[in-house]
């Protein structure tokens, strides 16, 4: 009996049409006191309504599974990107039904508008498409798919609960990785904002000896081979390969600043994944180090096929901390882990020149043994404020302070350059492109 009650009554809901019909019947009874000619019309109308109610309930509940709904998603979601979600609904009734579909999406989105209404003919299948844009990494719990079905009578609705519950991990942005891979292979990275860099000189890795053709550098002529063959022969070289490219991500409080829903840490993580992908396509080794008050994760540089997955699995649950980074521990770890000279891309942020100067001794030590590239961020809100005209004295103060902080950022670039340390000062939304541009420029200049 309890099971019967749960199956039929807990999933039965009264529609607005039923309440409107009841209100009409009550009105007829009230009017009967003033108009005797109405006679038995109120009783007849009420009887017809009760009969329609039971008929409506019968046709909705006579089929045990009158509707089918399934949710289709990828195995993981991409942080900061639009992820497609699909719900497929099939009508098993022999008549047209009106459906209201509610998808219980993860609470992190704080959305209550995933409520879809559609009409389905008998045996018809329809798909619902929408996108979700997560702004935090971690695990996201999807709940049930709830469907409220009404017949053409429309007095009541029957609820179906479909078990679409699943936990999906949100990984660092990977949707655009395929585009970077395709562009890198086809040498069309300029279409995504990646600059084409002219190569300077030759690399030191010998490839082969070939016949001289017009346009070859005469300085590469191999005179011994020319004497043996009786024609001009030249040496050809290839880019140096298998260089160590380590991305170092600062997880301290300076990376908590939000921009368009994502923290600076998330932007750094997305750029790290993209740079690692491009580096491995260029046959370099990609590695990872995370740092806060202590050393976090360390992924030794490698170029095997599973390396990108290893990096993403580490970055998947990384969170910002509340203390300042310990660069002394970073220096010790780099010296212990990175035995061969390589490129260190350090994602961090400095809001004042004094903050940079506190860390400068450690940055200088790192740059002594490796090619160090420090990446930090422009404060785009301050830049917007400085460009707005001041309307009063308080506005002048705000504009002046904003310009002071912007000028300090430029001084930081000069301070790093003075000590022979490369740097990138970039808006968060252009981080990935600017970092890859710099990496390709360094490869072309044969500095790595």
UniProtKB/TrEMBL annotation:
<dbReference type="Pfam" id="PF01882">
    <property type="entry name" value="DUF58"/>
</dbReference>
<keyword id="KW-0812">Transmembrane</keyword>
<protein>
    <submittedName>
        <fullName>DUF58 domain-containing protein</fullName>
    </submittedName>
</protein>
<dbReference type="InterPro" id="IPR002881">
    <property type="entry name" value="DUF58"/>
</dbReference>
<keyword id="KW-1133">Transmembrane helix</keyword>
<feature type="transmembrane region" description="Helical">
    <location>
        <begin position="20"/>
        <end position="38"/>
    </location>
</feature>
<feature type="transmembrane region" description="Helical">
    <location>
        <begin position="44"/>
        <end position="63"/>
    </location>
</feature>
<feature type="domain" description="DUF58">
    <location>
        <begin position="209"/>
        <end position="373"/>
    </location>
</feature>
<keyword id="KW-0472">Membrane</keyword>
């Amino acid at each position: 009996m309890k099971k019967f009650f749960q199956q039929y009554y807990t999933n039965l809901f009264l529609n607005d049409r039923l309440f409107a019909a009841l209100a009409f019947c009550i009105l007829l009874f009230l009017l009967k006191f003033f108009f005797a000619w109405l006679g038995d019309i109120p009783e007849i109308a009420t009887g017809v309504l009760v009969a329609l109610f039971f008929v409506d309930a019968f046709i909705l509940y006579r089929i045990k599974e009158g509707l089918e709904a399934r949710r289709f998603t990828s195995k993981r979601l991409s942080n900061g990107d639009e992820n497609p979600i699909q719900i497929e609904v099939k009508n098993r009734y022999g008549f047209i039904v009106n459906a209201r579909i509610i998808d219980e999406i993860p609470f992190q989105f704080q959305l209550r508008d995933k409520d879809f209404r559609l009409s389905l003919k008998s045996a018809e299948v329809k798909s619902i498409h929408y996108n979700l844009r997560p702004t935090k990494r971690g695990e996201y719990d999807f709940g049930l798919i709830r469907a409220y079905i009404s017949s053409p009578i429309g007095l009541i609705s029957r609820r179906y609960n479909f078990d679409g519950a699943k936990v999906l991990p949100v990984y660092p942005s990977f949707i655009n990785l395929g585009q970077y891979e395709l562009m890198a292979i086809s040498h069309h990275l300029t279409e995504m904002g990646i600059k084409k860099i002219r190569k300077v000189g030759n690399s030191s890795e010998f490839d082969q000896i070939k016949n001289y053709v017009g346009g070859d550098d005469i300085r590469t002529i191999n005179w011994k081979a020319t004497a043996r063959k009786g024609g001009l022969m030249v040496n050809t070289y290839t880019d140096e390969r298998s260089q160590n490219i380590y991305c170092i991500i600062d997880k301290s409080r300076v990376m908590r600043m939000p921009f368009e829903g994502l923290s600076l840490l998330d932007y750094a993580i997305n750029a790290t994944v993209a740079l690692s992908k491009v580096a491995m396509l260029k046959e370099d080794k990609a590695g990872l180090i995370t740092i806060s008050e202590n050393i976090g994760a360390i992924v030794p540089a490698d170029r095997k096929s599973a390396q990108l997955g290893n990096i993403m699995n580490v970055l998947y649950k990384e969170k910002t901390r509340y203390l300042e980074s310990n660069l002394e521990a970073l220096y010790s770890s780099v010296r212990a882990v990175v035995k061969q000279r390589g490129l260190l891309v350090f994602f961090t942020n400095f809001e004042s020149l004094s903050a940079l100067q506190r860390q400068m001794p450690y940055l200088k030590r790192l740059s002594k043994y490796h090619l160090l590239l420090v990446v930090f961020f422009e404060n785009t809100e301050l830049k917007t404020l400085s460009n707005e005209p001041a309307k009063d004295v308080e506005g002048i103060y705000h504009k002046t302070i904003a310009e002071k902080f912007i000028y300090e950022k430029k001084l930081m670039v000069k301070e790093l350059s003075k000590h022979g340390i490369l740097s990138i000062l970039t808006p968060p939304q252009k981080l990935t492109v600017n970092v890859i541009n710099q990496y390709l420029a360094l490869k072309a200049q044969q500095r790595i």
